[in-house]
Write a structure and sequence with these properties.
Layout lengths: L7 E7 L5 H10 L3 E4 L6 H10 L6 E5 L11 H9 L4 E8 L2 H11 L11 H17 L3 E4 L5 H17 L4 E8 L10 E4 L20 H8 L2 H23 L4 E8 L5 H15 L5 E4 L6
Parallel strand pairs: 1-3, 1-4, 2-3, 4-5, 6-8, 6-9, 7-8
């Protein structure tokens, strides 16, 4: 199954209605050779065909979902075999909450593949059960519940470009507002609502954590600086260990009340810490534009 040169293989999977079609279209636009709804067992055979062909194909994306649920047997073995080659294999799992999925199905008037003769909510339950194992092995999970098509394309493009630049772990730093919910696509969450809030300073209220005046206000506090010192020690200790474990992606999320001031400033500070360790982090300020 080893090709004549290493391939960059992306497997896109996840809940029906979570954005897999959009993801595959974006990957195709980026030059990936895309195969939709291919059984996992057939991927090695396809790679062998690539190796024997004269085509210069190095980036391949496969979409797999519950339409091929009969091929989910022995999934762990299949993924292990795929990852034991000299190729780079990345699994991206797209998810959304059931309420959003139900709305999307209602708008498109499509039938869920597992709920032909039953309520669609039961289809979601069955689908999550089928996808449980592959989700646990995903390199990155993206919750598209609050995403537009543009948001999803932008995030996927960042991940693909970032992973192609370096063999090291990709680190995502994101700010968010607790008012809008904790991001599902995160590994570690830091609550920074204990820091003093610029929102209650009239001249700072309509600014963001990217503005100099807000940054100075947040960092002027002794508590903030002590927290950043502790955070730096933790990051310098743990990040190399996560990387050594072979983790492909690590997402650190920092939340304040609205996601516009304190969390944004802290993410920008952490960005400098991560950069100092030799990584190029991906920055996301999820709620910075929200009121």
């Amino acid at each position: 199954m080893d090709s004549r040169y290493p391939l960059n293989i992306v497997i896109v999977t996840g809940m029906s209605g979570s954005g897999k079609t959009t993801a595959m279209a974006m990957l195709e636009d980026m030059g990936f050779f895309c195969m939709d709804n291919i059984p996992l067992q057939l991927i090695p055979k396809f790679i062998d065909l690539i190796a024997d062909s004269k085509e210069d194909i190095r980036n391949i994306a496969f979409s797999i979902d519950v339409r091929g649920r009969g091929f989910f047997a022995d999934l762990s073995h299949q993924l292990q075999a795929l990852r034991s080659t000299n190729n780079t294999v990345t699994i991206i799992f797209l998810d959304s909450n059931d309420g959003v999925l139900l709305k999307r199905y209602s708008e498109t008037r499509r039938k869920h593949p597992l709920a032909q003769d039953m309520p669609i909510e039961k289809g979601f339950i069955l689908e999550r059960k089928y996808l449980e194992e592959i989700k646990s092995q995903a390199d990155h999970i993206i919750d598209t519940s609050s995403y537009t098509v543009h948001d999803l394309k932008k995030e996927l493009k960042l991940f693909i470009q970032q992973s192609s630049k370096t063999k090291s772990m990709t680190i995502i730093l994101q700010s968010f507002g607790y008012r809008f919910g904790i991001p599902a696509d995160t590994d570690i969450v830091f609550d920074v609502r204990f820091l003093r809030n610029p929102y209650f300073v009239p001249e700072l209220k309509n600014m963001t954590g990217l503005d100099k005046a807000v940054i100075e206000y947040v960092k002027k506090s002794e508590i903030t600086m002590k927290f950043l010192g502790i955070l730096r020690n933790m990051i310098e200790f743990t990040i190399p260990l996560y990387d050594a474990e072979g983790k492909s992606y690590l997402t650190l999320s920092f939340g304040c009340t609205g996601g516009r001031h304190r969390s944004v400033t802290i993410v920008e500070e952490v960005k400098e810490m991560i950069t100092g360790l030799g990584y190029t982090p991906v920055i996301k300020h999820r709620d910075i534009e929200k009121e």
